[in-house]
């Protein structure tokens, strides 16, 4: 059996958990919200499940547990309410060959690159890479210099301003209207439109790329669409311009650097308009590079239901939907490990934040079934409902665990009451023979940005381990920071 295995870039020993790698290779392809480090996930899978055992991540996100499980020869089920999450996971667990993605890029490039670059053309004939905007005024035009990394910063000319104006009011045809809610925490409102988030020029160029993707052979389209989702934030008006940073000296510098789209829909007064083609191409090339680094083969996948995994016919099953609806279909007693990073109360409203990605993918997410506490009042997502759903999930999971099965939850929440489901579970779990084994702090790589506000939260995310096997905790004591008690809460 051949599996898609990203090359092992680390030794899965306990020490590496204290110093995890940044996101590299396939893991660097998509900036999914709230990504977890791969090292502890792999370590736990290896230490808590047998070869060929069944691992389930009922809140899959960008697929780290699925990739790691497949890497070490386990079978895996991934479920997520977010269509973007499942489509990213499918691409990464069973990726196309690098040359197919490179070919697809070549075809899209031939079709639209020149027209896109023209829309950034300067009076001198070159194409701008970035425009700096401040309070609605174009203040700088950046061009690539002759040699590699150098750049030229010019003042905008009438030509630059006229060119920009030509596209204002452009109505995109290849994107569906996004759906936003009134949520001050992420700066979204029900009336937010694509024109608030993108220049007309960006929308027109995204349309060109979308149209070119639709013309590709079917098998080429998905990697291109997902690359567009991975780069769309950088094409928006939400790209911060970072200024005033003195390097080493502490002195305030005039130098402006390109930031990135951060969590939420903030449109900074000073922002960059980045060349849409460059954003897209860079992302696809990143994927090609990651795919080139893989040892061949791909996992067998079933999409949309759990029948084939229950029957042992595939290595991986991915389902887009509500975990509470799908988990009951798993064989009773068939799961060796639930390992999951569930939604953490009100920390990240995944579907609201993923709306631009799902718009590109033409998906209409099931907002009503998301398990989350949202500050968007019209969504009626309360902490009470969240706790009830999480308790229900743990109840179902308990019935699915094998005799030696374990359950690992990565968790952190802003308010103490968001841990309520967990306290209730702890008592019920021990009645069902599932004992709390201990927990450990999750360590992120120094370079990884923790993408949310930590206000009121515990400083650290914890991995909490339960198991039916009494001795399971003994296998984990090497994990740095391992403790047999729960972390202290406020
Ligand atoms: C903390 S994230 C997982 C991130 C993942 N660990 C990673 O590294 O990418 C939680 C996930 O739960 C998903 N989710 C929320 N409600 C759900 C539901 N009812 N059923 C399935 N998934 C749900 C969200 O879409 C989100 O992807």
Tell me the Rg in angstroms. Answer: 23 Å
For the termini, the CA-CA separation is 49 Å
Structural class: alpha/beta
Number of domains: 2
| Low-confidence segments | 1-11, 449-454
Structural features:
490 residues; alpha/beta; Rossmann fold; 2 domains; eight-stranded mixed sheet; six-stranded antiparallel sheet; 16 helices; 16 strands; globular; binds S-adenosylmethionine
Q: How would you portray this structure in words?
A:
- By secondary structure, the protein is of the alpha/beta class.
- It has two domains: 5-91 and 298-476, 3-Layer(aba) Sandwich (Rossmann fold), CATH 3.40.50.150; 98-292, no CATH class.
- It contains 16 helices and 16 strands.
- The strands form three sheets. The chain has an eight-stranded mixed beta sheet, sandwiched between helices. Strands 6-5-4-9-7-8 form a six-stranded antiparallel beta sheet. A two-stranded antiparallel ribbon has the order 1-10.
- It starts with a strand and ends in a 23-residue tail after the last strand.
- Residues 1-11 and 449-454 have low confidence and may be disordered.
- Bound molecules: S-adenosylmethionine.
- S-adenosylmethionine binds next to strand 3.
Outline the fold blueprint.
Blueprint: E1 5-6, H1 14-18, H2 38-48, E2 54-57, H3 64-71, E3 75-80, H4 83-93, H5 98-118, E4 128-134, E5 137-144, E6 151-154, H6 158-167, H7 194-197, H8 200-214, H9 218-232, E7 239-243, E8 256-258, E9 270-274, H10 276-292, E10 294-295, E11 301-303, H11 307-310, E12 316-320, H12 323-326, E13 335-340, H13 350-353, H14 355-360, H15 383-400, E14 401-411, H16 420-431, E15 435-441, E16 462-467
Parallel strand pairs: 2-3, 2-13, 3-12, 11-12, 13-14
Antiparallel strand pairs: 1-10, 4-5, 4-9, 5-6, 7-8, 7-9, 14-16, 15-16
The site of S-adenosylmethionine has 23 residues, from β3.
């Amino acid at each position: 059996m051949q599996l898609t295995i990203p090359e092992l870039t680390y030794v899965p020993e306990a020490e590496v958990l204290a110093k995890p790698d940044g996101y590299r290779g396939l893991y660097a392809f998509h900036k999914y919200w709230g990504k977890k480090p791969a090292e502890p996930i792999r370590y736990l899978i290896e230490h808590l499940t047998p070869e060929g055992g069944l691992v389930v991540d009922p809140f899959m996100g960008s697929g780290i547990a699925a990739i790691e499980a497949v890497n070490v020869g386990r079978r895996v089920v991934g479920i997520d309410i977010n269509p973007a999450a499942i489509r990213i996971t499918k691409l990464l667990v069973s990726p196309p060959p690098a040359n197919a993605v490179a070919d697809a890029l070549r075809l899209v490039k031939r079709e639209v690159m020149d027209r896109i670059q023209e829309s950034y053309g300067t009076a001198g004939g070159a194409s701008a890479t970035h425009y700096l905007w401040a309070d609605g005024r174009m203040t700088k035009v950046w061009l690539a210099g002759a040699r590699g990394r150098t750049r030229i910063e010019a003042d905008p000319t009438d030509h630059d301003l006229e060119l920009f104006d030509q596209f204002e009011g452009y109505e995109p045809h290849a994107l569906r209207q996004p759906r936003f809610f009134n949520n001050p925490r992420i700066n979204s409102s029900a009336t937010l439109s694509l024109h608030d988030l993108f220049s007309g020029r960006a929308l027109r160029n995204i349309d060109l790329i979308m149209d070119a993707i639709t013309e590709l052979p079917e098998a080429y389209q998905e990697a291109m669409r997902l690359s567009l989702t991975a780069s769309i934030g950088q094409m928006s008006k939400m790209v911060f311009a970072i200024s005033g940073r003195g390097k080493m000296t502490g002195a305030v510098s005039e130098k402006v650097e390109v930031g990135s789209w951060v969590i939420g829909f903030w449109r900074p007064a000073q922002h960059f308009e980045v060349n849409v083609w460059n954003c897209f191409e860079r992302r696809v090339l990143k994927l090609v590079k990651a795919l080139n680094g893989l040892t061949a083969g791909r996992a067998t996948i079933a999409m949309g239901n759990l029948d084939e995994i229950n029957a042992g016919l595939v290595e991986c099953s991915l389902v887009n939907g509500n975990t509470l609806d799908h988990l009951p279909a798993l064989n009773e007693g068939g799961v060796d490990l639930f390992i999951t990073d569930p939604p953490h109360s009100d920390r990240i409203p995944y579907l609201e934040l993923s709306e631009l990605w799902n718009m590109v993918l033409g998906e209409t997410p099931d907002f009503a079934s998301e398990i989350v506490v949202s500050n968007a009042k019209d969504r009626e997502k309360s902490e009470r409902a969240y706790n009830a759903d999480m308790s229900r999930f743990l109840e179902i999971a308990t019935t699915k665990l094998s005799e030696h099965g374990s359950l690992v939850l990565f968790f952190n929440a802003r308010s103490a009451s968001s841990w309520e489901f967990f306290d209730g579970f702890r008592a019920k779990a021990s009645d069902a023979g599932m004992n709390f084994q201990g927990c450990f702090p999750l360590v992120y790589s120094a370079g990884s940005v923790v993408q949310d506000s930590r206000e009121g939260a515990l400083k650290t995310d914890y991995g909490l381990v339960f198991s039916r096997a009494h001795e399971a905790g003994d296998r984990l004591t090497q994990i740095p920071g391992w403790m047999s008690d729960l972390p202290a809460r406020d």
